[in-house]
Write a structure and sequence with these properties.
This protein has five domains: about 120 residues, no CATH class; about 80 residues, no CATH class; about 100 residues, no CATH class; about 70 residues, no CATH class; about 70 residues, no CATH class. It is of the alpha/beta class. The chain is about 65% helix and about 10% strand. The chain binds zinc ion.
Length: about 450
C-alpha cells in the first residue's frame, strides 16, 4: 500500500551496486513507523552489503499526517526538476494517498527542497516548538512569581527556590514582560518590573556572575581608557596599531580598544596593517595576520550590533549604556526618544542610585544629559526660544531676550507656548505652567497681542 519499490543504488564509499526498498508516500495515520525512520535519517536507507556504509536514496516524498493536518512534498533540489514536472508528480503522489476526507489543507501541500527542511516542518508541527513554548511559559510564570512577591523577603525566597532556572533566557523573558507592559501603555508598571528585575539579577547566582563579569569588563575598559589617554588628543594610526599589537594576546583588552575607538579601525588602518605584515620578519607575520583577522571580526561585530537597532526601549537604553559614543546613537535614533524612553531612563537612574551603583547611575545620567542636549539642538526655533527664557536667571534677562528675538518668530511663538502649556498640564506640572504663562504674557506684549 505504501508503494514500495526497489531502487538500485551505488555505494558512496565502495561503489558496490545494491537495491534499497524505497517509500515515497508516507501516510503516517496508516504507517506511523515512517515518521521515526524519517526523523532519524533512516528512511529509504540501507547499509551496503559489501562495506556497511549507510546509503540513502534521494527521491521525491509526500508526507501526510492527517491528525496534524500536515501535508509536505519534498522535491530534492538535487533532482533538478522543473516546476511543471514537480506539480505533475505531486498530483500523482496525492492520488496514491489512502482515500479519505479531502480537506482544505490538502489543496496546498507545504514544500521542502531538502530532507532537513522536511524534518523541520514535521518537528515544527509536532510540539518541538510546543516544548519550547512550554519552557517559555514556565519562564514567564517565574517572572510573574518575582513580580508578585511583594516584599524583599518573599522575593529572596523565590530566587533561592528557583536559582537554577534563572539563566540568560529567564532574564530575556523578564525584559520581554517589561517591554510588553510598555507597549500596553503602562510605563510605571514597566519601571517597577525593571526595578524588580535588577534586584533579581543581584540576588541570583547567574546574575551575580553577570555583574562580576561586567565589573571585570568595566575595569578592563578603564585600563584601556587610561592607556589611550597617555596618547593625548590626537592618536595616530601608528599608535593605534602598536596598542593593538600590545593587546593582541589579551582579547578582552583588544575588544575594549575596538569598542572605544571603532572609527580608528578604518580602511587606511587595515591597509597599514597589511603593509606592515608584508614587511614584518617571518616569525612575527603569523601573529600579525591573526591580529588582523581578529580585528576584522571585532569591527564587524560592533557594526552589526549598532545596526541591529534596538528592539524596544529597554534594549535601546541597554545599547546606549554599552555604547562608546551614545551621542551618535541618540542623534541617529531620535524617533526612539519619547516619553516612555525618558520614563524608563529616569526609573533606571533612580534604581541605580537606590542600589548605590554609582558607576551605572553616572553613566545613565550622562546619557540623560546627552539626550536632553541633543533634543534641545533638534528643537524648533520657537521651542528653543521658550526653553531659553525658561532658563533665564531673572525676569529682566528673559524680557531682554524676548524683545530681541520674539518679533523674528512671530505668531508661531504663541502657538508653541500654548502647546507647551498643554503638555505641562497633561504632565501635571502646575508650577511650570504658571511660569510659562507669565512668559507668554510678556511675549504677547512685545508682539502687541
Ligand atoms: Zn559499500
Amino acid at each position: 500500500m505504501q508503494n514500495q519499490q526497489q531502487s538500485p543504488i551505488r555505494c558512496s564509499s565502495c561503489g558496490q551496486t545494491y537495491a534499497i526498498p524505497v517509500h515515497s508516500i508516507l501516510d503516517i495515520a496508516s504507517t506511523p513507523q515512517f515518521k521515526g525512520l524519517l526523523l532519524s535519517g533512516r528512511l529509504n536507507s540501507a547499509p551496503c552489503p559489501n562495506c556497511g556504509t549507510l546509503n540513502t536514496v534521494l527521491t521525491p516524498l509526500l508526507y501526510h499526517d492527517s491528525e496534524k493536518e500536515l501535508l509536505i512534498a519534498l522535491m530534492p533540489m538535487e533532482l533538478n526538476m522543473n516546476k511543471d514536472d514537480q506539480e505533475r508528480l505531486i498530483g500523482t503522489m496525492m492520488n496514491r494517498l489512502p482515500k479519505g476526507n479531502f480537506k482544505g489543507y490538502m489543496f496546498n501541500p507545504k514544500r521542502a527542497i531538502t530532507m532537513q527542511g522536511m524534518m523541520n516542518l514535521i518537528l515544527e508541527a509536532d510540539g518541538i516548538t510546543q516544548e519550547m513554548m512550554d519552557e517559555q511559559r514556565a519562564r514567564i510564570q517565574l517572572v510573574q512569581q518575582c513580580l508578585e512577591a511583594g516584599s524583599e523577603e518573599a522575593l529572596q525566597k523565590v530566587v533561592t527556590d528557583n536559582d537554577a532556572k534563572m539563566d540568560d533566557r529567564f532574564f530575556q523573558a523578564f525584559s520581554l514582560v517589561a517591554q510588553r507592559a510598555l507597549e500596553d501603555g503602562q510605563p510605571q508598571i514597566a519601571q517597577q518590573m525593571l526595578a524588580i528585575q535588577t534586584r533579581v539579577v543581584e540576588l541570583s547566582t547567574y546574575g551575580k556572575q553577570l555583574l562580576a563579569k561586567q565589573a571585570q569588563q568595566e575595569q578592563i575598559i578603564q585600563e584601556v581608557a587610561n592607556q589611550l589617554e597617555t596618547y593625548g588628543e590626537k592618536i595616530s594610526r601608528e599608535d593605534v596599531l602598536s596598542l593593538a599589537i600590545i593587546y593582541s594576546e589579551q582579547d578582552d583588552h583588544l575588544q575594549a580598544l575596538v569598542g572605544m575607538i571603532r572609527p580608528a579601525f578604518d580602511y587606511e588602518f587595515f591597509q597599514m596593517l597589511t603593509a606592515s605584515i608584508a614587511k614584518a620578519p617571518a616569525q612575527n607575520r603569523e601573529k600579525l595576520e591573526k591580529l588582523r583577522d581578529r580585528l576584522n571580526q571585532l569591527t564587524a561585530a560592533i557594526d552589526q550590533q549598532n545596526q541591529r537597532a534596538l528592539q524596544g526601549v529597554v534594549g535601546f537604553l541597554q545599547t546606549l549604556v554599552n555604547h562608546p559614543q551614545p551621542e551618535e546613537m541618540i542623534a541617529d535614533n531620535l524617533d526612539a526618544i519619547d516619553d516612555t524612553f525618558m520614563a524608563v531612563l529616569s526609573a533606571n537612574i533612580q534604581q541605580a542610585e537606590q542600589a548605590n551603583n554609582t558607576a551605572l547611575s553616572d553613566r545613565l545620567k550622562y546619557i540623560y544629559n546627552a539626550v536632553v542636549t541633543i533634543l534641545r539642538a533638534n528643537m524648533s526655533p520657537e521651542l528653543q526660544f521658550i526653553n531659553t527664557i525658561l532658563g533665564a536667571p531673572s525676569d529682566e534677562e528673559a524680557e531682554k531676550f524676548i524683545q530681541k528675538h520674539a518679533l523674528q518668530l512671530g505668531d508661531g511663538l504663541i502657538e508653541a507656548f500654548h502647546a507647551v502649556e498643554q503638555m505641562l498640564v497633561e504632565q501635571g506640572n502646575a508650577a511650570l505652567v504658571g511660569r510659562v504663562q507669565t512668559l507668554r504674557t510678556m511675549t504677547e506684549k512685545v508682539l502687541n497681542r
